[in-house]
Design goal:
The protein has about 450 residues and is an alpha+beta fold. It contains 20 helices and 13 strands.
């Protein structure tokens, strides 16, 4: 449902459109918004203090859940509209990895983000960086913060496959000394909120010098983390540390209990549950941005057949402007990273399934939810099959997977059975359709 003439951010949450990014909490001039976890839904939502709120509308102006005008934002950021509907604006594409083998091995994929942030920090290009780590006292809860030292940057390495209100840390950037410079790291929805905030607050535009974006198909709610713990017979209160990725590539989930024992779940095993999409926020289904198109530089796993024997990690990288190009050149010259030129086709090959869902199915979800959240220019026209698949997925999420007894059954279901569920005929046909789109769009790149 579209949000018409709202008075504050509460209307966005009421319609299930909140992305949980935290931008509203950071930008509110009266500190009237706090991001809290909705335990039933397993996501962060804004809690509004109605006594403090003066209806100024600042929270709505920066909210990516209410609207994202990709055309306007691209003009503001890059000076032109996207020439590529699948990847957005870009200068070059690369594959690469960190030279420091410890960083490369212990990161999500290649350690490029950590290596580049450390170089920028040590070279004096930035004074701090907005990143997310897990809280030492609450290991299942993410903690966005401004890292200012090497140790703090490394503590935030590895992706967090759970809701993260990263943009609450923008408040610390707003409170920083004049002239301090920052980098930010976030998912597409975080970047949407940041860019909108920069358009209304010049302080953020001056302070944030480079935006790092993470490829993202969807966020798993905290319910999914609880499910994974339950599948291995682990109570949440017994967890001392949880790393979703790391230990080489493609990596493993490592669950360390307070008694010192560890449970290691290979990525390819737990990604099956991620792919089943047990609990996907409505806002994720209405997002058409897989590759963080509003970042200066975007990063993802290099899921390429030619790298299948790489067990340490390699990143696929989309450089979108000269700021990113300069950083990459300098880091290569200083021996911090290794880069090899790639093609847009390589990026699409890495993300073909996620791109199909983001660019093709989004139109079907917009119609299903009767939402005008995103601009039509950000997606491809859905067909009858897309509408049928979107309806099926929404039924799974809102009806089937909302039943606790279904979760209990799945907790004991063999992985082989789950793999069959992921091979729905509609999804297979959808992939073939997307491949035809890609061949047509990238025929000049050798596709």
């Amino acid at each position: 449902m579209a949000v018409n003439n709202p008075t504050n951010i509460a209307s966005v949450s009421e319609h299930g459109l909140c992305t949980g990014c935290g931008t509203c909490a950071a930008i509110c001039p009266r500190d009237a918004v706090e991001m809290l976890v909705d335990r039933g839904a397993g996501v962060y939502v804004p809690c509004l203090n109605t006594e403090r709120c003066n209806q100024c509308g600042a929270c709505l102006e920066v909210c990516p859940g209410r609207s994202v005008d990709f055309g306007r934002l691209n003009l503001d950021i890059f000076g032109r509209k996207p020439g590529d509907i699948l990847l957005g604006n870009y200068e070059n594409c690369y594959i690469g990895y960190a030279v420091d083998q410890a960083i490369r091995y212990n990161s999500t994929s290649g350690g490029m983000i950590t290596a580049l942030l450390l170089y920028a920090l040590e070279a004096g290009a930035i004074d701090g960086v907005l990143v997310t780590r897990t809280r030492p006292d609450r290991p299942l809860q993410p903690e966005p913060f401004i890292a200012r030292t090497r140790e703090e940057v490394i503590s935030a390495a590895r992706s967090k496959y759970c809701p993260v209100p990263a943009n609450i840390a923008l408040k610390e950037i707003l409170a920083a000394k004049e002239g301090e410079r920052f980098a930010v790291v976030g998912l597409p929805c975080h970047l949407h909120g940041m860019r909108k905030a920069e358009m209304v607050d010049e302080r953020l535009r001056r302070a944030i010098r480079i935006h790092f974006g993470l490829f993202c198909e969807h966020v798993d709610t905290f319910l999914n983390t609880d499910f994974m713990l339950g599948r291995y017979g682990i109570k949440s209160e017994a967890v001392a540390r949880l790393d979703y990725r790391g230990r080489g590539w493609p990596g493993s989930m490592v669950i360390e209990k307070k008694d010192g024992t560890q449970t290691i779940v290979p990525l390819r095993r737990w990604l099956i549950w991620h792919g089943l999409r047990l609990s996907v926020p409505k806002s994720c289904r209405l997002c058409g941005d897989e590759t963080a198109e509003l970042a200066d530089i975007s990063f993802g796993d290099a899921w390429l057949p030619e790298l299948q024997h790489d067990h340490v990690g390699t990143s696929i990288i989309v450089s979108r402007n000269e700021v990113a190009e300069q950083l990459l050149r300098d880091a290569v010259l200083r021996g911090r990273v290794v880069l090899e030129k790639a093609s847009p086709r390589d990026v699409v090959r890495c993300q073909i399934d996620a791109l199909y869902r983001k660019k093709k199915e989004i139109g079907a979800y917009m119609r299903l939810f009767r939402s005008d959240v995103l601009q039509p220019s950000n997606c491809l026209h859905p067909d009858t099959l897309d509408h049928a698949y979107a309806t099926m997925q929404q039924f799974n999420t809102s009806v089937l997977f909302s039943r606790r007894w279904v979760w209990r059954i799945l907790r004991h279901t063999p992985l082989g059975v789950v793999r069959l569920l992921l091979r729905a005929p509609s999804f297979g046909i959808g992939r073939l359709q997307m491949r035809r789109v890609i061949r047509q769009r990238y025929r000049n790149h050798g596709a």
